[in-house]
Amino acid sequence: MKLLSLTYKITPEKEGGFSVFCLDWKSINTQGETISDCKKNAIEATELMIEVYKDGKLDKTAYPKIRNHAANPYNFQLTFDIETAKHIRLASIQKKAHLHPLRNIVAFL
Hints:
Elements: E1 3-12, E2 18-22, E3 29-32, H1 35-54, E4 75-81, E5 86-88, H2 90-96, E6 97-99, E7 106-108
Antiparallel strand pairs: 1-2, 1-4, 2-3, 4-5, 6-7
């Protein structure tokens, strides 16, 4: 399993609703009426971009550039499995993670 965590920023629009911009992958932008809609749309847009990325159809300048972002109440992170191009809930992964007692290594089972 190859994981990719991306940071998104939500901004309110003057006409109503919200816009979402991926801070790590500039090609991913979407919008929604509510914050919940924005997150769902961001997941869908990112899954589609990962599919295109896996097919090798992206220009190299369009690849994601992962950075550290300052904490901000308008930012949120989502994690995706690159191999399946699906959104992953970290809570479900953490339940499967086990810490090796001798080596402090996390293994996903």
